[in-house]
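Hey everyone, long-time lurker, first post.

I ran two proteins through the pipeline my lab uses and got sequence/structure pairs for each. Pasting them in order. The first:
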Amino acid sequence: MRVIPNRKPTFLVLLILACCSLPLLIKAQEKSPAKKRVGEGIWHEYPAAQVSRGRIQFRKTCGFCHGPNANGGSVGPDLMSSAVVRDDHHGNLIGKVIRTGFPGKGMPHFNLSSAQIMDIVAFLRYRLNEVDLRSPERVSANYALSKLLVGNAKAGKAFFNGAGKCSSCHSLTGDLKGIAKKIPPAELQADLLYPSNAHATATVTTSSGRQYTGRIRLLTRYDVAIVDSAGWYRSWPRHSVKVQVHDPLAAHRKLLFKFTDTEMHNVFAYLETLK
């Protein structure tokens, strides 16, 4: 006859230990930060409610320049490729830009509360994670030159001075002097096609004949707004004024439809010789 030992005491001890450990496990999980796993979707670095508030605040404060989703607008650059956004840590970089602006580049400062700024930070970081999830192979500014330098510099120089008519606007002793030392290769290649530091301006003539010139902040069928050299924001209904636009990128836009891949790589190779 087999004797079956009484396991009730052992079972009770295990049950008590499990009940005591469960609250500690739950608390530890609540404290540990959420991490993105492959296939799990967008990493929520900040609470969803804060991201939603930030989306609204961003569109009210920044969307007219940088676009409603921070991908760039009519006059503002794409913030998804901005080092300020990518290197930000809990608002240390984004907050500074919002509070001080970039006066020399036409960006004003904004008097927002710390909470409003952090809402914008939450939205921008969410958008960054969203964009990177869709484009995981995004090229960084430090992308190896050897992988980009596939063109012929001599052919690029010929195109620059000939068919491309680049030399009619750009100077090797002026704006392009030492350009290869000033701008990382990946950024230079992008700027070759569509310069990020060139901004459209407009001269607005009122019904009284008075003229105002400044960087375009808004230009639609119904409204025009500029920031003049003194930093004043001025706007008018489009039907009440005459508007003359000065677009330094007009030639680049036309060239985009003519550039072949070979020509683009050749010109880039030539620009990389300008050290």
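...and the second, right after it:
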Amino acid sequence: MDSAERDEELVARTVAGDRDAFAALVQRHERRVYNLTLRMMDNDQDARDAAQEAFLTAFRKLSSYRGEAAFTTWMHRVTLNACHDLMRKRGRAPLLALDPNVEPPAPPAPDHAETSAGAIDVRRALAEIPEDFRAVLVLHDVQDLAYEQIAQALDLPLGTVKSRLHRGRVALARIMTGEPARERGSAGGTSEER
């Protein structure tokens, strides 16, 4: 298989019955999908479950991919849906399993770099941001998608994407500076109109 083969060509081959083509799609996108699920679920096992479910769903529904958007955009939507479904199935609010009043266990060796601690703080802060804002933040600031791609992936107007990104960043900044939860909640609710 040509390593430069486009996603759309691999999709067409998969729909025609070539399972090796789907394996190539999975290999090409597995890291991005897992990173997205990890930031949405904030738990390695849940992230792996959601990523696996996303690829299973993609395989089953690949014939519905029309090519109007990039395959990565379509795959982001499938992945976010898998995260939402898993959260609903488990009957819990996203990322609220972490108790902010309980300190995590100390690392086994005190030689971790400060950047590692900073990354953990950001992950914990992301866990407290409403799911709608978190999805846009992760897609834009972590996955480096353009506003238009996010709007397409989430089926939202462009203005809503920009608004959620702004509000998510404000909420993240407030959490990172240690403002009390009652003030963080005033950053904006999650019941934003589409």
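Reply from user beta_strand_b:
Welcome! Quick read of the second one: The chain has nine helices and no strands. Residues 93-100, 102-118, 181-194 have pLDDT under 50 and may be disordered.
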